[in-house]
Amino acid sequence: MNPAIKALQAKLSDKRWRLDNLYLILNEDGKTVPLEMRQAQRKFLDHRKNRNFVPKARKLGLSTIIVLDNGDECIFNKNTRAGIIDLARNDAFDKLEIFKFSWDNGPLHPDPDIAELWKLIHKANPLTREAAGKLEWKNGSGYTGGTSYTGKTPQRFTSQNMSRSALNHLSRPQRSSEAQLTPFR
């Protein structure tokens, strides 16, 4: 095996290295480029806790880094479940597609050694199921996107646009089995 690839394989145990080096995204011009974390993304990763509230902010890339981080957990850890919940199914699918794009394009990485490393990752842990809003790998991990989450308990979870979701939920007629919530005005 190429010594450069062997040296890179040793770095795969470092999650921050993986986030800094492996993943490709589409930039604002629609070009495929390696992820270069913004200051806000680094700050989020450095200071996050088990539960984080992130106010909506455009163009900071926080959704992107959270999606890539959760997907990274799935491919490098066995039996990991991650979920994305959003107001609309298409929005959740679009966020999941950020990771799917990175997964699919990894073997085409502009750094030939990283591209080769991606080929080894794909061989060791291939994608076994790809359906609308769901990715599953050989290692038993899965990543789901939708408007709700049921089934296996996720270890990693992100919920987008919660204030809009809550308002929509509160404005729907309540079933008798649902608790009534009265918003403060």
Give a verbal description of the structure.
With 185 residues, this protein is an alpha/beta fold. The protein has a single domain, classed as 3-Layer(aba) Sandwich (Rossmann fold), CATH 3.40.50.300. Helix content is 43%, strand content 16%. The protein is built from 7 helices and 7 strands. It has a 5-stranded mixed sheet with strand order 4-5-6-3-7. Strands 1-2 form a two-stranded antiparallel sheet. Strand 4 and strand 5 form a beta hairpin. The chain is globular. Mean pLDDT is 83; it is low at 176-185.
List keywords for this structure.
Rossmann fold, globular, 185 residues, 16% strand, two-stranded antiparallel sheet, five-stranded mixed β-sheet, alpha/beta, disordered C terminus
Give me the CATH superfamily. P-loop containing nucleotide triphosphate hydrolases
Biggest sheet character: 5 strands, mixed
Low-confidence stretches: 176-185
Structural class: alpha/beta
The Rg value, from CA coordinates, equals 18 Å
* Amount of beta strand: 15-25%
Order of helices and strands: HHEEHHEHHEEEEH
